[in-house]
């Protein structure tokens, strides 16, 4: 039963003491979050991982986050992901072969005028690619500063793998939509809306399948019904949604906005279901709904559940380290260059 699993997980957690540290991303289920020593967004958790001295770190989040934690911890520390199927469909939209091929083609078109940036929602191999080509990582909470930095380095930037975060951030900085080209990694083709010379931003054609479920019609329906409901979305939503919402920002920004809001205020939030549900229960005096009435779960985040966490904990108690995430040294060294620029 669930109670039995909770009792087993709690006992194993207690036995492991300070040899273990558990990180929990805001999109995790409540049954998992209650075991987290700290909760945070992906940037906060990477930074916290780097400061830990525990022998074992269980990352309750997705694969790319555990890779980043492994890169930032010592080789003696083991980072574990309770379920190896907890990937990220967005990170999987840019593999290293496609990226190297795209880079060659783009260099052919634009010469040495591009700084690559990658959203942290990418594999360690992509972070390493960016690091060795003079670029940096970004998260949704520092995208504006990082895009500004990249465009201060060279004439253009390539933004991987989320076209929406890239586009929304570039719009915030006043770059016209026509000056943003889209690189299609499947057709290996650049989709242009202006002359080649005028391109400022090259967006990788990737997206988050969760945030794509928030549509302009959801905003329009709410606007018609309730003028006083604030619409707050994550910048992985499309430009069409972000541009008609009231506020857009990272996971941390969304939480901070609700925390700072007035009791009685009305909100519709466009982000992952577990976070929206947690905000609804943590702030009962605010009127909070999901922007999409059907709610939008991230299926891979949700693969980390109580049975998998209990299994990881009990195996560790028995001295077995299961589902360890390791990044090879060369990849880690190059990825660190990109991560350090951001941090
Ligand atoms: P944050 O960087 O806001 O934690 O978002 C991570 C993520 O996966 C969003 O979909
Ligand atoms: Fe990846 Fe989207 Fe899930 Fe975030 S919400 S982990 S970007 S699939």
Write a structural description.
With 343 residues, the protein is of the alpha/beta class. The protein has three domains: 2-88 and 301-327, NadA-like (Rossmann fold); 91-204, Rossmann fold, CATH 3.40.50.10800; 211-290, NadA-like (Rossmann fold, 3-Layer(aba) Sandwich). 42% of the residues lie in helices and 17% in strands. The strands form three sheets. It has a six-stranded mixed sheet, sandwiched between helices. The structure holds 1,3-dihydroxyacetonephosphate and iron/sulfur cluster.
Rg, rounded, reads 21 Å
Specify the CATH class of the largest domain: Alpha Beta
Task: Tell me what the CATH architecture of the largest domain is.
Answer: 3-Layer(aba) Sandwich
CATH superfamily of the largest domain: NadA-like
The overall average pLDDT, rounded, is 96
Q: Indicate how many domains the architecture comprises.
A: 3
Show unreliable segments.
none
For the biggest β-sheet, the strand order reads: 6-5-7-10-8-9
Strand content: 15-25%
* Cofactors, ions, other ligands: 1,3-dihydroxyacetonephosphate, iron/sulfur cluster
Number of helices: 14
Largest sheet: 6 strands, mixed
SS content category: alpha/beta
**Principal-axes shape call:** globular
Total count of strands: 14
The percent range for helix content is: 40-55%
CATH topology of the largest domain: the name is Rossmann fold
The helix/strand order is: HEHEHEHEHEHEHEHEEEHEHEHEHEHH
Measured distance between first and last alpha carbons = 43 Å
GO molecular function, one term: transferase activity
InterPro entries: NadA, NadA_sf, Quinolinate_synth_A_type3
Function: Catalyzes the condensation of iminoaspartate with dihydroxyacetone phosphate to form quinolinate.
Catalytic activity: iminosuccinate + dihydroxyacetone phosphate = quinolinate + phosphate + 2 H2O + H(+)
């Amino acid at each position: 039963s669930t109670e039995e699993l909770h009792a087993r997980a709690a006992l194993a957690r207690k036995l492991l003491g300070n040899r273990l540290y558990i990180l929990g991303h805001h999109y995790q289920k409540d049954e998992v979050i209650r075991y987290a020593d700290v909760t945070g967004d992906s940037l906060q958790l990477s930074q916290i991982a780097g400061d830990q001295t525990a022998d074992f770190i269980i990352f309750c989040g997705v694969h790319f986050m555990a890779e980043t934690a492994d890169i930032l911890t010592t080789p003696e520390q083991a980072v574990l992901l309770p379920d190896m199927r907890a990937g990220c469909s967005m990170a999987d939209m840019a593999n290293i072969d496609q990226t190297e091929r795209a880079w060659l083609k783009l260099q052919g078109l634009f010469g040495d005028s591009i700084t690559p940036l990658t959203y942290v929602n990418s594999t360690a191999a992509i972070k390493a690619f960016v690091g060795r080509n003079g670029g940096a990582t970004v998260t949704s909470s520092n995208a504006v500063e990082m895009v500004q930095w990249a465009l201060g380095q060279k004439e253009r930037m390539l933004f991987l793998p989320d076209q929406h975060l890239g586009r929304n951030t570039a719009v915030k900085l006043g770059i016209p939509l026509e000056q943003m080209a889209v690189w299609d990694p499947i057709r290996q083709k650049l989709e242009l809306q202006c002359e080649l010379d005028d391109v400022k931003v090259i967006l990788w054609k990737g997206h988050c399948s969760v945030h794509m479920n928030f549509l302009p019609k959801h905003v329009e329906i709410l606007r018609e019904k309730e003028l006083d409901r604030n619409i707050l979305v994550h910048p992985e939503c499309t430009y069409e949604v972000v541009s008609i919402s009231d506020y857009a920002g990272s996971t941390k920004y969304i939480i901070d906005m609700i925390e700072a809001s007035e009791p009685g205020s009305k909100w519709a939030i466009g982000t992952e279901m577990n976070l929206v549900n947690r905000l609804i229960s943590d702030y009962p005096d605010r009127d909070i709904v999901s922007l999409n009435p059907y709610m939008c779960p991230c299926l891979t985040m949700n693969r980390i559940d109580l049975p998998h966490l209990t299994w990881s904990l009990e195996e560790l108690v028995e001295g077995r380290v299961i589902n360890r995430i390791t990044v090879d040294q060369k990849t880690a060294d190059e990825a660190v260059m990109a991560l350090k620029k951001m941090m």
